[in-house]
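New to this. Please check this record:
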Amino acid sequence: RGGLWFGWSGKKVADGTPGEGELHVRQAGDVTLAGLDLAEDDVRDYYEGYSNGVLWPVFHYRLDLAGFEQRHLEGYRRVNRLFARKLAPLLRADDLIWIHDYHLIPLASELRAMGCRNRMGFSARTAAAAPD
């Protein structure tokens, strides 16, 4: 069946340049694994700041926990652009791209802006709880 898994490697690069990252590609059986290292500033803004500091609380009706900062939104957009730039060269024309979770909401539009014509789907595993 094969396939490609692409995402953040989990590694923070202390002296990394925001919007840049090293991609590590390896095989695991018939699946290609592509993990992207992120600069510490990108992890702070994209992951901790916007994804988990704004989107997670909003999706869980915990507006009291949400704290918006413009730099976090900019980091979120910057990292999704970075993911698109690093992912696009790995794609084949017939690949179906499955984008998973709120960390990657803008990824499809970033890929489309680069000319990617692949079929895409999106799934958010975070169920929005009903307000009490």
